[in-house]
């Protein structure tokens, strides 16, 4: 018996960008001293206060079925957070609690798309985006945001792709590029969404990690609250990646349908996880800034090391826990460079090609090692790139 065509073709014909990551993990398991700068995983554990709240809730008996939409207090807290950050009045009826941001993306695309609908997303993209769209039976359509435009999506390109589409997925601050979309970019995105009747799905999981500019949720723009589904989570903002706690915020009537979807898929999130999330949100902005601070420090470390040489150039690292580096001067593709770097230096980074066509000739570096190890890895990476560039220039 064959599995369904949909499940067999979720990632298209490739490995969805995870090949080098899995190779690095296998090397580490075999005892090789690999410095990993691959995935967005904090180098600190979840705060003991959050874990204590989780433990107390579980020991207190909140281990049975929890309310599928999310416990009322957590939905209220998320609603208050979005109201404060966007200025858009938000109530618990606008909030669905999900098992992480990824489940939120899945639910949002189910809400926006029917079988066979075209669903737009920006290239470069987080590696799961195309398969998430395929998983709901929609057709993924990438729209390139190119290095020459600072990886800012252009209204003209979006407008050209929009006719006949049902949705557009964006992500700012952006993974993988670290770019924060400007007010002008977001205004163009909003115009395209309104002009072409698109649902806008806004992945905002990095909204607490902004180093330059400001995070603007498109939900706050004129005419957008009724057509925007915001996906958020506590994974990045509170170092709770393994807790799998996220949300979707959108129009109440659509959230009601998404609650029905959750009833027939995830059946909610464990109550003790939700209680821990409620406690985490109560720790406030200062706590969230503390979680983000190491990534800002490491951004400064790598930008300082990059100064004064030309083989590696940084894409403006305006937000998120990554730096996207342009290594085209080496004459290598991102995949070739990352593979050789892993073999020669035992440093693992993600090839730009893992995130789409527009990021070819780049690599993504996660700012996720302690400062001293990160500085060592960055130094070795830059030295290796300069050797490659010198060799390419001599050929």
From TrEMBL:
Domain of life: Bacteria
GO MF annotation terms: L-aspartate:2-oxoglutarate aminotransferase activity; pyridoxal phosphate binding
Any one Gene Ontology BP term: amino acid metabolic process
Catalysis performed (reactions): L-aspartate + 2-oxoglutarate = oxaloacetate + L-glutamate
Its EC number(s): 2.6.1.-
Domain (Aminotransferase class I/classII large) ranges: 33-381
Pfam families the UniProt entry points to: Aminotran_1_2
Cofactor: pyridoxal 5'-phosphate
Broad enzyme group: transferase
InterPro entries named among the record's database cross-references: Aminotransferase_I/II_large (IPR004839), AspAT/PAT-like (IPR050596), NHTrfase_class1_PyrdxlP-BS (IPR004838), PyrdxlP-dep_Trfase (IPR015424), PyrdxlP-dep_Trfase_major (IPR015421)
UniProt keyword terms in alphabetical order: Aminotransferase, Pyridoxal phosphate, Transferase
Family assignment from sequence similarity: Belongs to the class-I pyridoxal-phosphate-dependent aminotransferase family.
Record-given protein name: Aminotransferase
Organism field: Rhodophyticola porphyridii
